[in-house]
Amino acid sequence: MARLKDEYNSKIRKELLQEGEFSNIMEVPRLEKIVVNTGVSDATNNSAAIEEASEIITDITGQKPVVARAKKSVSSFKVREGMDIGVFATLRGDRMWEFFDKLVNVVFPRTRDFRGVSLRAFDGSGNYTLGVTEHTVFPEINPNKVQKLRGLQITIVTTAKNNEQAKMFLDKFGFPFKKDGKKI
After folding, report:
1. How far apart are CA 92 and CA 179, in angstroms?
2. Domain ranges (residues) in the chain
3. What is the SS3 assignment for 160?
4. 113, 116, 138, 166: most buried, per Cβ within 10 A?
């Protein structure tokens, strides 16, 4: 079982129940899923770009991603309906907890000039989305074999009802929020 999942079940869940305004243990926020995706803008000219992005997501998440296709044609982007334009993987269970552990304890410290993640990236429903500008910060990626740097979007979906509950949940795991004193 994942290390953070054990810690959540044994310690953090009880702490959140006492600190938050939750009436029972089932109201305490928990991780539901993590979605990792990347857009592949050069897929319009280079068909191998989708396979490269797919390999990157597979290496990072340990799971084969799904190829996203364009829903509409957009002539200014040279995109036609049905073209492959990105890849994404939805993580659940132990794989999700292991990725979350790796994100907080390995990826953020390896990021150059990292000063914390923004408090403004919550969506109002207890979910948090962040961007990683270079996929090479993940330990599974060999920087010498990288053909093109790709950015990733990571969405952390929780069962929290609002931003405050989600921030309280993520704080318990040591999520590195910026300390600028602004409210959510």
Report:
1. 30
2. 3-172
3. coil
4. 166
- Dist. CA 140–CA 119, nearest whole Å: 28
Residue spans of beta strands (DSSP E) within 31-165: 31-39, 66-69, 84-91, 128-132, 152-158
Give the H/E segment covering residue 167: helix 163-172
Q: How far apart are the first and last CA of the chain?
A: 33
Helix (H) or strand (E) holding 60: helix 48-61
Tell me the two tokens of residue 182. Answer: 């602004």
Superfamily of domain 3-172, CATH level 4:
Ribosomal protein L5 (3.30.1440.10)
pLDDT over threshold 60, residue 17 = yes
Contact between 136 and 158 (Cβ < 8 Å): no
In angstroms, the CA 131 to CA 36 distance is 10
